[in-house]
Amino acid sequence: MTEKIGVLGKKTAKRTGVERIVNAPLPTVYGQFRAVGYIDHDRGDEQVALVHGEIGTDDVLTRLHSECLTGDAFGSQHCECGDQLASALKAVVAEGSGIVVYLRGHEGRGIGLLAKLRAMALQAEGLDTVEANLALGLPVDARDYGVAAGMLHDLGVNSVRLMSNNPRKREALQQHGIEVAETVPLLIPPCESNITYLRTKRERLDHVLPHLDALAHLS
To answer: In Å, how far are 10, 60, 127, 218 from 130, measured between CA atoms?
Structure first.
């Protein structure tokens, strides 16, 4: 908690960290969830965790899903994000309990929507996703998972079974005090539109994508 100077010269407390604001039922095509809404006072983002069933405290099946408007809402085949989100929601329902933390502010690995679209335009000209970000003078990956850990702590979670192919998510959660008991692969069959992107994620961003080995026929 830090302090700021108010309009009358008095010091007022500035809130920091993650604060739970609302807990509302959310019926979806995948099953019944609770939408637990938060404010990230450090960044100003509104965040949500979709909780299914009685999650308990240990080995909770969990997905940290980075916001991707083009994939999640528009069905873009440039990435596999929309399919990963749907698969994660289905998985926690099939499990009987679990959490999907939807992380706003993570668009384009943290560079924002318009910058992501500019990077996609460069990729259409032949750059890969890493080269495109760097060509724009932007970080390759600017995401922070501290808010996700804060939300999990608030939900009483000590350890997770993390649905992810990205080892950085595991490392980040553990750094913030959430134990990762297991990494659960979330592998989506690629298509011609995203195979190059996925190979770049594996070769340059260390994502674990063993299913790409059998797809040499895709360019």
So the answer is: 47, 32, 8, 20
- What the block records as the tokens of 90 is 């289905």
Task: Report d(CA 10, CA 124) in Å as an integer.
Answer: 54
Identify the burial level of 11 via C-beta atoms within 10 angstroms of its C-beta, where 0-12 means exposed, 13-18 middle and 19 or more buried.
exposed
- Please check if 16 is assigned to a binding site: no
pLDDT in tens, 177-218: 999 999 999 998 888 888 888 888 888 888 888 888 776 555
Residues 6+ apart with CB under 8 A from 32: 25, 26, 52
Residue 171 is assigned to a ligand binding site: no
Contact between 161 and 59 under an 8 Å Cβ cutoff? The reply is yes
Residue 17 exposed, middle or buried by CB count within 10 Å (0-12, 13-18, 19+) = middle
Q: Is 47 among the annotated ligand-binding positions?
A: no
Residue of 118, 143, 161, 170 with catalytic role? 143
pLDDT band (50, 70, 90) for residue 4: very low
- Which of 141, 154, 199, 202 is labelled catalytic? 141
Q: Select from 156, 212, 206 the least CA-distant residue to 188.
A: 212
Examine the residue annotation and report whether 141 is marked as an active-site residue of this protein. yes
The response to whether 64 counts as a known ligand-binding position is yes
Annotated ligand binding at 66? The verdict is yes
Q: Is 43 designated active site?
A: no
23 vs 87: CA distance, rounded Å: 23
* Three-class SS state of 24: strand
